[in-house]
Specification:
The N and C termini lie far apart (64 Å). The protein has a domain of 34 residues. The strands form two sheets. Strands 1-2 form a two-stranded antiparallel ribbon. Strands 3-4 form a two-stranded antiparallel ribbon. The protein is rod-shaped and about 65 Å long. A hairpin with a 6-residue loop joins strand 1 and strand 2. With 60 residues, the protein is an alpha+beta fold. The protein is 12% helix and 13% strand.
Length: 60
């Protein structure tokens, strides 16, 4: 069984963890209904994507 021969320093440990931070999802605004939505996805409120109606919606 392999075990570490030396203690990992705080600096080395923190450098390894520097890429582990979580980021909030980016939010864009729908050009049709001005509701927030995820980019490159159909708007859940009005059902449009790139100016075309993809999903028929009763909300409009």
């Amino acid at each position: 069984m392999a075990v570490p021969k030396k203690k990992t320093s705080k600096s080395k440990k923190n450098m390894r963890r520097s890429h582990d931070a979580l980021t909030a999802p980016s939010i864009s605004v729908c050009p049709q209904c001005q509701e927030p939505k995820l980019p490159h996805r159909v708007c859940p409120h009005c059902g449009t994507y790139k100016g075309k109606e993809i999903i028929a919606s009763e909300n409009v």
